[in-house]
């Protein structure tokens, strides 16, 4: 937890192995003395009871594919300028890698880092897939399932400081971020990670990844 700064705005970028791991990562950040602010699909905020609760605990709705997405970015920038902890899953969904290694990420975290200069802290978690495994949709209610979370030192993005946020620049930054997350997960698992980041199926089919 010493790699989670005690003050100031930071961007936390975890790997995503299970639908359960946001609870694990959120608990970890809270245990480090910070309040985590996650991004979520704006439609969730329209669910009775859940929506008001999410607003109360300062989570951040994100509208996709519309001009509202720009407003969501402004909310994130304001949160960082106010010294908040913004949690972004660069993969955008649970990993599709058969062995649950990280995929290539989307560029939102890189764009936000370039705009704000906020440090990007990689986080690896392992064990949440034993509670809910996205590969099988199997839910385990076994008590005291061991789950481990670790934060690394902020990603060194200095080579891109002041760069124009072109697609090429954002892709390079994102790959650099995800490699740090991948290597951190390898240390946590005690395994050698794959040399290349996993390409999500849509990208292999030739579709452009969503930022």
TrEMBL record:
CDD domains: LPLAT_AGPAT-like (cd07989)
Protein's UniProt keywords contain Acyltransferase: yes
Residue ranges of domain Phospholipid/glycerol acyltransferase in the record: 10-128
MF terms (GO), sorted A to Z: 1-acylglycerol-3-phosphate O-acyltransferase activity
GO cellular component: plasma membrane
GO biological process, one term: phosphatidic acid biosynthetic process
Keywords: Acyltransferase, Transferase
Protein name per Swiss-Prot or TrEMBL: 1-acyl-sn-glycerol-3-phosphate acyltransferase
Pfam families: Acyltransferase (PF01553)
Organism of derivation: Paractinoplanes tereljensis
